[in-house]
Design goal:
Strand order of the largest sheet: 3-4-6-11-12-13-14-15
Strand content: 5-15%
Number of helices: 17
Structural class: alpha/beta
Largest sheet: 8 strands, parallel, barrel
Number of domains: 1
Helix content: 25-40%
Low-confidence stretches: 1-22
Mean pLDDT: 90
CATH class: Alpha Beta
Distance between the termini: 43 Å
Length: 438
C-alpha cells in the first residue's frame, strides 16, 4: 500500500477531528477577514489565472463577466490576471496593460465585482524574460543574457534606465488601480517573471548591485515595493506573489525566499504574501502538478514553435504527481518564520484542507483550477451542498488560455479537444451549481 502524502494525511486528520473545525479559537472560513486596509467577506481568494479574453491590452465584456461570475459564486476576492505595467512586459499582446485611458473600462469591471459583494485585486507585473517579444512588438527584459523562446530572440539585459522605468511604471499602475476602484494589487514576484528572474541565481549572473547576494538580487523587488507603498499608502491592500523555490537546478532556494519575505514584512511593504513556486521559463508544471496536456498545448502555439515543442514538449512540461494542497508543507516553513498574513495556494480543492490551513495559521486560501471547474463552489461550501471541487486536475484548462480560459470538462466549448479518458468526467457542473444556488 502506498504511503499517503503529507497533504492527504492533513485532509484525513481534519475529517477525523471535527473539533478542529468548530474550535472557537480557530478562524472561520466564512467570517470576514482584514487584508491590510480592506475587509474580505470570507477567507477565499480567486487566484490569478490568465483569462484569455482581454484584447490588445483592454478590458472586454467577457473579462468583466468572468470576474463577476467568480464574485457571484462566493469568493471573498477575485484577482484579475495579468496587468502589465508596460506594453513590453506582457506575456502576450492581449494581456491587460496599465493604460491611463483604461480607467473607465477597469471601473466597469470593479463595479461589477463589487455589485456581487466581493473585492477585486489586480495582479500587476512585468513578465521580463517570460514576455513574448514577438507578440508584443518590443524587447523582453532579463537580468542577464537570456534567449527568449516565445519571442524567438534574446532578451535585453536590463540596465539602470530600464530598472528606473520599470519602478516608475509600477507606481503609475498602482495609482491607476486605485483610481479604477481596485481594492488590492498583487505584485508578481514569481514564476521567473522580471522580479523573480532577478531572484534566481541561474538567470541572474550580474556583477553589479543587482546581482550576486540575495540582498542585491532582491533590490529591484524591494525598491519597487517601497515606491508603490509610498505612492498609495494604505489606500490599497498590497500583496506579493512570491516564489518559494524555482523548481530547477540553480534556481531560487527556499532560505533565500524566506529572507526576501522577512524584508517585505519588516518594512511593512506588503499586507500579505501569496506563496507559489515554479518557472514559466524552466519548469511550469512544477506549479501546476498533474497531467501535462502536451498534445493539446502544441496546438495553441504559433506555427513556428510547434515543431520544436513537439520534440521537447514532454521534457519541458514534466509530469508531477498531483496531491491536494501540494505546496502546503513548503509553505508552512514560511508560516513558522513570519508573522505577516500568508495566502496558501496550490491545488486546494477540499473544504477540509482550507479549514486546516486556517488552523495552521494561514490567513487566506487561494484557489484557481477548482474555481475554473466550478465558479460557485465557495457558495456551495457555505451552504453545505459540497465539500470538494470536482476538478480532476487534467490541466486541459492550460490549453484554453488564449481563447478564453475555461474548464473543458465542466464547461465544454465548441472546438475543445478532450481525450477519451476524461469523457466520463465531463459534466456541466457550472450550470448545475448555478441552478442549485440561484
Amino acid at each position: 500500500m502506498a504511503t499517503p502524502s503529507v497533504c492527504e494525511c492533513k485532509t484525513q486528520q481534519v475529517a477525523e477531528d471535527p473539533e478542529s473545525l468548530t474550535n472557537p479559537d480557530s478562524p472561520k472560513l466564512f467570517e470576514s477577514a482584514d487584508l491590510g486596509p480592506v475587509t474580505l467577506r470570507n477567507r477565499f481568494i480567486k487566484a490569478a489565472t490568465f483569462e484569455g479574453v482581454s484584447r490588445n491590452g483592454h478590458v472586454t465584456d467577457e473579462l468583466i463577466e468572468f470576474h463577476r461570475e467568480m464574485a457571484s459564486g462566493g469568493v471573498g476576492m477575485t484577482t484579475v490576471a495579468y496587468m502589465a505595467v508596460l506594453p513590453e512586459g506582457r506575456t502576450h499582446r492581449d494581456c491587460l496593460v496599465a493604460y491611463t485611458s483604461s480607467v473607465p473600462e477597469l471601473r466597469r469591471l470593479t463595479d461589477a465585482v463589487h455589485s456581487e459583494g466581493a473585492l477585486v485585486s489586480a495582479q500587476v507585473g512585468h513578465a521580463g524574460p517570460v514576455a513574448n517579444a514577438s507578440s508584443n512588438g518590443g524587447k523582453a527584459l532579463a537580468p542577464s543574457r537570456w534567449f527568449n523562446p516565445l519571442g524567438f530572440r534574446f532578451a535585453k539585459i536590463a540596465d539602470s534606465t530600464d530598472i528606473a522605468e520599470v519602478i516608475a511604471a509600477y507606481v503609475r499602475t498602482a495609482q491607476l488601480c486605485r483610481e479604477s476602484g481596485f481594492d488590492a494589487i498583487e505584485v508578481h514576484v514569481g514564476h521567473n517573471y522580471l522580479f523573480s528572474s532577478f531572484l534566481s541565481p541561474q538567470l541572474n549572473r550580474r556583477q553589479d548591485s543587482y546581482g550576486g547576494s540575495i540582498e542585491n538580487r532582491a533590490r529591484i523587488t524591494l525598491d519597487t515595493l517601497r515606491a508603490v507603498r509610498a505612492a498609495v499608502g494604505n489606500d490599497l491592500a498590497i500583496t506579493a506573489k512570491l516564489n518559494m523555490v524555482d523548481g530547477y537546478r540553480g534556481g531560487l532556494k527556499i532560505e533565500d525566499s524566506i529572507q526576501v519575505a522577512k524584508w517585505m514584512q519588516d518594512e511593512q511593504l506588503v499586507d500579505a504574501i501569496e506563496l507559489t513556486a515554479g518557472s514559466s521559463l524552466m519548469n511550469p508544471m512544477f506549479y501546476f502538478k498533474g497531467d501535462p496536456p502536451v498534445k493539446q498545448f502544441i496546438k495553441t502555439l504559433p506555427w513556428y514553435l510547434r515543431p520544436g515543442f513537439a520534440l521537447v514538449g514532454k521534457k519541458f512540461l514534466k509530469a508531477y504527481p498531483y496531491n491536494e494542497a501540494y505546496f502546503y508543507e513548503m509553505a508552512k516553513q514560511f508560516r513558522s518564520a513570519l508573522d505577516l498574513p500568508l495566502i496558501l495556494m496550490g491545488g486546494v480543492s477540499n473544504l477540509d484542507t482550507a479549514q486546516q490551513a486556517l488552523v495552521d495559521g494561514f490567513e487566506f486560501v487561494a484557489m484557481g483550477r477548482a474555481l475554473l471547474y466550478d465558479p460557485f463552489i465557495i457558495e456551495s461550501y457555505r451552504q453545505g451542498s459540497a465539500t470538494e471541487s470536482g476538478c480532476i486536475h487534467c490541466n486541459l484548462c492550460m490549453t484554453t488560455i488564449y481563447s478564453g480560459t475555461h474548464c473543458p470538462i465542466s464547461d465544454p466549448w465548441p472546438g475543445d479537444q478532450v481525450p477519451q479518458k476524461y469523457h466520463a468526467s465531463m459534466s456541466n457542473r457550472r450550470d448545475k451549481s448555478r441552478n442549485l444556488l440561484h
